[in-house]
Amino acid sequence: SRPAPENCLPTDGFVPLGTLLRLPQFRGFSAEDVQRVVDANGKQRFALQLGDPSTGPLIRANQGHSLQVPALALVALETPQALPQVLVHGTFWKHWPSILLEGLSRQGRTHIHLAPGLPGDPGVVSGMRPNCEVAVFINGPLALGDGIPFFRAANGVILTPGNADGFLLPKYFKEALQLRPTRMLLSLAGDKGTECPSSPQHSPRGRRMTQQ
């Protein structure tokens, strides 16, 4: 039997679909509606599987949990060779100054999400929102060498819990790229390159930001 106590996920993250559909926020939705969402989700964020007669169909999120899911189907990437050549985190201008100063944070989740490429690159299904404004490229082998673990989720997203405080520090940043309105490299210096495009010091055509 898979049912779990309230506010607690089973070790593999799957919960009975019937239990989910009885929640107030899902009132009016059917199992067929959920199946369509799972099938149509290009980022493969959800998984459905048959349960036993006592539970019926089971559903889980493949990533993005705020609770620990010990038996989630994650593959540990334990050597530099196992890591994708590209590890990149997408973010927005409003977060960039704090990221540049403190690093990437789990922000209440169990993992920091990284993509094996930019949106539109071959084989990149998920890991970054298509409207992200800044891409931060990570030196995975350096972080791995410092004991920071990396995992691959079922949909190809690379996950890391970061350090003991839940951060991937700036020393692991290889480079940063402005994605919008035009693509250009950003400075990783703490006192430069932190202005957003709406700043008076930034050209609306996306030219390099004025440095103080």
TrEMBL record:
Its EC number is 2.7.1.160. Pfam families: PTS_2-RNA. The keyword Electron transport does not apply. GO terms for molecular function: tRNA 2'-phosphotransferase activity. InterPro entries: Ptrans_KptA/Tpt1, RNA_2'-PTrans_C, RNA_2'-PTrans_N. Residues 190-212 are annotated as: Disordered. It comes from the Eukaryota. Keywords: NAD, Transferase. The keyword NAD applies. GO terms for biological process: tRNA splicing, via endonucleolytic cleavage and ligation. It catalyses: 2'-phospho-[ligated tRNA] + NAD(+) = mature tRNA + ADP-alpha-D-ribose 1'',2''-cyclic phosphate + nicotinamide. Catalyzes the last step of tRNA splicing, the transfer of the splice junction 2'-phosphate from ligated tRNA to NAD to produce ADP-ribose 1''-2'' cyclic phosphate. Belongs to the KptA/TPT1 family. This is 2'-phosphotransferase. The gene is TRPT1.
